[in-house]
Amino acid sequence: MIELEGMAGEHINDVSSKAIALADEKQESVQFKFNETVVVVQPGETVEKVVSRWSREFEESRQRHINSQEYKDAEAKRKKDYADRCAAVMVEKAHSESEMRDAPNPWPYTMEQLVQYVNSLVEREHDYGTCVHAMELAATAAFNYISHKLGVTGFQASCADLSFLQRSRSIKGPFMIVLASDALYPQCDPREKFRKAFDEWQPWLKEEAQKLLIAELKEETKATFDAEAAAQAWKRIKFTTEIAPELIAKAVQDGKDAGFLKGATDTSKLLVNP
Q: Total structural domains in the chain?
C-alpha cells in the first residue's frame, strides 16, 4: 500500500484526486490521512466516492470521540475551569510603573470582571507613569473581553489592533509597524518591508499630494482648481532624489544675470556623495 502525504491547507477533494491518480497509475491501493481520519483509495474510484467515504468515517470517528469517557472527562474539566475563571475576583495587583508595565495581559470573561478590573485601576492613587499603564491595561482588558464574547479569529483581532491604533492616534492613510527584532532575521529585513510598503502607498500618496497642491493653490490665489487638471499636470512631473549639478550652475548664473549674485560662487560643496 502506498502512503500519500497531504499538504497543509489542501482541500479533501484535492487530496482525493491526487490519491486516485496515484492509485490508477500504480494500480495499487493508496492511503492518506485527512483531519486525523485514514482513507484507503482503490484504483478506479471517483472523487465523489472517496470524499463521501471520508465524510462518513470522519463523522463516525467524531461521534466515537464525543461518546468516549476521555472526552466527557475533558469536557467536564473544561466547563469547571471556565466556571472558575468566570467566578474569580479580577483586580490589578501591580502598583508601581515597572510592575504595571510587566503585568500579564488581563482576560476578563464576564462584564462584572471587566468593570471590577477597570475600577481597580481607576480607584487608586496614580503618578505620571502609572496613568499610562492604567489606560493601556484597561483597554487591553476591554479588547480581550469583547474578542472572547464575539469569538473572533486571530486575523480579526489583529485588524482591530491596527484600527484601534489608527483611531487613537488619529492616523490618516496607510501605516505600518516596524519591529526592531525583525532585523535579527535576514528573511524579515524591515528595510525591505518598508520599501515594499512605500511602493504600495504610492497611489494614496499621489492622490493626497494632489489634494494638498490644490488646497495650497486655492489659498494663495483664491481661485478654484479642477482636480482633473491637477491630475493631468501631475503626470508631467518627474520626482527624483538625484540633483543635477548643471541645474545648480544655471541657477547661480541666473542669479548673477539678475544682479543678485556678484563675484565667484563656489557650489562644489553643495553636493556630497554619501
A: 2
Do 23 and 58 share a structural domain?
yes
- Is there a contact between 233 and 225 (Cβ–Cβ < 8 Å)? no
Task: Note every long-range contact of 211-219, with CB atoms under 8 Å and residues 24 or more positions apart, other chains counting.
Answer: none
pTM exceeds 0.70: no
- Pick the closest to residue 172 from 213, 207, 217 (CA basis): 207
Of 135, 168, 201, the residue at which a domain comes to its end is 168
Q: Is residue 87 helix, strand or coil?
A: helix
Q: CB 98: neighbour CB atoms within 10 A?
A: 12
The tens-digit pLDDT sequence of the chain (274 residues) is: 899 887 778 899 999 999 999 999 999 999 999 988 999 999 999 999 999 999 999 999 999 999 999 999 999 999 999 999 999 999 999 999 999 999 999 999 999 999 999 999 999 999 999 999 999 999 999 999 999 999 999 999 999 999 999 999 999 999 999 999 999 998 999 999 999 999 999 999 989 999 998 999 888 888 888 888 888 888 888 777 777 888 888 888 888 888 888 888 888 777 776 5
According to DSSP, the residues that pair with 39 across neighbouring strands are 32
Domain with 142 in it: 87-168
Residues 18 and 75: their CA atoms lie apart, in Å, by: 37
